[in-house]
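Q&A log
Question type: sequence-to-structure
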Amino acid sequence: MMILVVEDKVAAILGKVLQNSGHTVELAESGETALEIIHRTQIDFFLIDWMLPGMTGLDLVARIREQERYREAPVVMISSRSGKEDIATAVAVGIDSYLTKPFSPAQLKQKIEAVLQQRRAVPESNALRQILKGHQAFNPTAGDPLVLLAFGARTEDDLAGADPIEIASLEAVVAAIQAFNRENTWFNLGYLLADSTGEMARYLKKWSIRERMMLAVLWMRCKGNIPVLGRSLSVQKIDDVALYMVCSQRGGLSGGLQQACKDGGMTLLERGDMDEGAWRQLIEDQVQTRWGQDG
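Response status: OK
Response body:
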């Protein structure tokens, strides 16, 4: 998960704690620098100090919430202010939670996990069931076109354990498919979830599935070995299915993963660029390419 730490005194220390927990971290010492970062980097989680040089942390949160792609992003504010009125003021601006200084590394980790768990709560459970409903409706004997979604999960428990930012990405694809079907009732586009890169490869080898497949999307979180998948796809020389891989940042991929995408013919998509509208446009383009030419 990409976390932006905005703090003017101990940002490096906080960043080290978060990196040791497996997160990717960007550091900013002011609100102005933070705004520059979020325009060039997709951030998944914000940790913002109240007192900053220049604009305050409250001002920064308000500016972040003005941007469409960050309106639902989790934000934790840190401050030595502990009064109820202070916390209420921060909540009104749009934070998810509040962490009072001083705090330990363990408390910081617990706070981040608590916010993420809250995002995975009951409302999301209904959304996950809707995602699974479409997957379970897949009919292997029908001839309807489909999209393969190699997200690395195909049960409610597995989906519930995924990062909320990643789930939002999956929800955007599913919402785009559903919207496309509502406006094109003659075109019943389905989708199939894949649990691993190996399962994705098996579906692509199975002609009865592949001939119906319009596009296949792989998420970086998917179980399995992406370089092995890339080599497998290069051997198969798949040119009748559009292949994509979703990542947080192209620049953050290792050379091996970039080569795997190139070998497998997968186009890289940055998660922050792919909202429902972007997925809808991609689907429409593929429908025109595959079926518009046949009509």
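Response note: The CA atoms of residues 285 and 292 lie 9 Å apart.
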